[in-house]
Amino acid sequence: MSVEAYFKQVSPSLLEKFKKYPDFFELFDDAQYLPDSHFWQEANLDLNNPEDAEWFDEATNYVPQTLEKLKYEQPKEFEKLKSDIPTMLAEGKNSEFDIGKKWNTLHFILTGTTYSTPIPFLIGKNKQDKLASINAILGGNTIDYETDNGLLRYLNADEVTQVAEALSKFSQAHFQERFTLKGLENGFDSLYDTYKKLLNYYQNVAYQKDAMFLYFG
Fold first, then answer.
1. Cys bridge to 96: 8, 158, 160, 184, which one at CB 3.0-4.6 A?
2. φ, ψ for residue 6 (rounded to 5)?
3. Burial letters for 21-38: b for 16+ Cβ neighbours within 10 Å, e otherwise?
4. Which tens digits make up the pLDDT trace of 169-211?
5. pTM, 2 dp
6. What is the C-alpha to C-alpha distance for residues 33 and 43, in angstroms, rounded to an integer?
């Protein structure tokens, strides 16, 4: 599949705002493209290249364009949230964590089931192999905001902590067992490295007692 999975930290107070006013997530998401965000430090653009320069100009204008759209389309909500906009932009500038296209295989290894089989819990046990089932990629509740691939989902701060603790107990041996169960022969080191980065991201967000968005693009 060409879909990629993303995770993004958000403060609990701001999460509550987005649950009530979901369309303002677009502003939070666009903030990563502000000129002073970390995104551009990692993008390695050559602004002497016309295509790169055009992309930079287009993306860095997302925030003002979204502000104007929200102000025009939702004037009452905009007034209510006006004082929260600086926080939305400040938090939104934080880099999102991307596990790319590996999410599908990683989801199976962490849960023991394919992505097409809904899991009705966040942390549990797979009945077949008796190993932990950690819904770290497809878990959470939804917000009424349509992303490129489904509704936006989130984990509150307590749920982030639960997942971080469960992932920390999912050993390399467990990972290897599920890797073998899926019939994979190559790519273990790369996939396990992605898992460790996912664990580290969850642990860092949990340490800061923040919540997290989960979405696909």
1. 8
2. -130, 150
3. bbebbbbbbbbbbbeebe
4. 999 999 999 999 999 999 999 999 999 999 999 999 999 999 9
5. 0.94
6. 10
